Amino acid sequence: MSKTTVEVNGNGLESLGKEFKIKFYDADGNFTDTGFVGYSDNSSHRSRRASLRPGKATSTDSCDHVRGVPSELRSSSVMKPHGIAIFYQKYTEAYGIPILSSWNVNDDALKRACYITRFLFADNYAVRNSFYQRSGRSAVIGVHEGTTSIPEHSHMDPSFWDKRARGLGATDSAPVSTGGEENLLCMKNDRYHSEDIYLHEFSHGVANLGARYGISGWFRRLESQYNTAKQQGLWANTYSMSSSAEYFAEGVQSFFNVNDYSATPNGIHGPINTKEKLSTYDPALYQLIEEVWPCHNTYLKRCVVSRAQEQQQNIRTNCDGSTGGGDGGGSCKDIHPNCHSWATTGECSRNPAYMLVNCKHSCNTCSGQGVVALHVQTAVSSVMIGLEGENVIETQVT
Ligand SMILES: [Zn+2]
């Protein structure tokens, strides 16, 4: 039997909603895990192991097709805990993970949110499937809607939250990651224009519902590394040191080269804003992020690509070596870490004797490889123009 103690998660509130963070200890008093329960309603004694959605994550997507919400998802026996609310009238999906919004949102915003979903859950089947089975989903907040317009967050105080945040990360009790339409579509009136808020918020969901359950000991190691980094004075005077959740989410932004930059830490951002800098500045955090995203796919930035370009990107999948629900099999692996870069320069056809044996995944030679891996490779380098260097004075609240 385990015993629990409860602590209010102060600085991380924005990512947790109105929730308590609970630490679990074993019989000897050793910290074992972290969980979350609701705060403002009376259902705060939920089981940490939420009941699961039936079925498994798929290996396909239909991001280019926005339509109505499938009726079965309205059921609480399918999507936990309460089914998909009637507020949601638009739907698309990646791996069976719903992307939702009201009527008020432009289809392109859902397509972009779907791309982010497809991208973030490509690499690791266990993470993807865990998010799926915990009824994880993504919802777009319309540009004229508020954070608390989202039904799962409607119990929160609008006078506070609608001003403070334009997105929240998924949790066990409210398994939806949200973000603003204006951020997804790179609108000029976005107060977080220089940041990819959706990626940040979604990475909270990936951690809370995906990696925490899908990768053995990962959440505990993240907490431990956060404490170590703090003791070492890393990330001083930045938002990363708010909590282990923000440490991870800010790290993810840097890992995918979409973080903001400040030459001197300004309380929010600092100079470590790229994958390369992250790998040398905080290699332990880099490694934790790499466990979730071992494929090293290139993230397409929202302000410089079209939705069609996103759809065409060849995103490598299941680099964790899993079967990924039948898209390649356990032997469908790259043996050498340079396989991907070799494949992108034409080595699969130039040197097939080696490549087709040792770089099966990168050369797409796996039988039954998933649909997401079969998108036509497109030259993305020309559109990878960074947003770094733009000035942001706004206080980051996500
Ligand atoms: Zn955050």
UniProtKB/TrEMBL annotation:
It comes from the Eukaryota. The keyword Ligase does not apply. InterPro entries: MetalloPept_cat_dom_sf, ShKT_dom. Residues 332-366 form the ShKT domain. Keywords: Disulfide bond. GO terms for molecular function: metallopeptidase activity. This is ShKT domain-containing protein. The lineage of its organism: Eukaryota, Metazoa, Spiralia, Lophotrochozoa, Mollusca.
